[in-house]
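Collaborator request, handled under Task 6.
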Amino acid sequence: MRIASIYDIHANLPALEAVLEDIRRVEVDRIVVGGDVLPGPMPRKTIARLLDLDVPVQFIHGNGDREVLAQMEGKETDWFRTAPEQWREPVRWAAQQLHSEDKQLLASWPDSLRIQIDGLGEVLFCHATPRNDTEIFTRLTPEDCLLPVFDELGAQIVVCGHTHMQFDRVVGGVRILNAGSVGMPFGEPGAYWLLLGPDVQFLRTPYDLENAAASIRSTKYLQAEDFAVRNVLHPPSEKEMLEAFGRVALG
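Structure tokens returned to the collaborator:
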């Protein structure tokens, strides 16, 4: 079995389309969407594209999807009450774009899933950590801080996302892979994803950044210009984000 693992799309449809074209060429058996399909500039078209695939797709939710769903349900989470307005605005806007069937879809996504993959063993897919969808850790987080999180999972490999930077490390005998981000990478521009089975391949799909930025700017997304510049054309560097996450990571 070969599985494409795509995380943190953030409704960047041009990046998703580019990755799906690469996935079509490598002929996978299944696609795992690892959360944070939302929020972002093209929410309805992104969901529709994922549902229209001719390959089996399984979803788990991320914190972004969960917050959008809460807004659609008229709930105000602790995060939404305390987050800066520039973070709340995309969540509120995405919720306003979606329909009732989208709400049912988001509500059906589980926290995690397990798949047995030939050559790799049992693989646990989660968004941030096996405990929840918000905890932050990076390739630099000390192992002793992570042992309680990844101990006794019964899985050989854990695939996560959330921090938008690929890495491959071992914690207490468990191999942890970060798939990176399709639509909002930190580091070199492009769309990042994983191919699993029978080995592990960390992949980066280049795409037409200028055309993607133009498409995003043409939407009614309230932060379209910022998204086009900071998440497509000129993403923050890995060094910059490692420093930022280092202040809030598990420790």
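The cover message to the collaborator said: "The CA atoms of residues 60 and 110 lie 5 Å apart. The chain has one domain: 3-246. Please let us know whether this matches your experimental observations."
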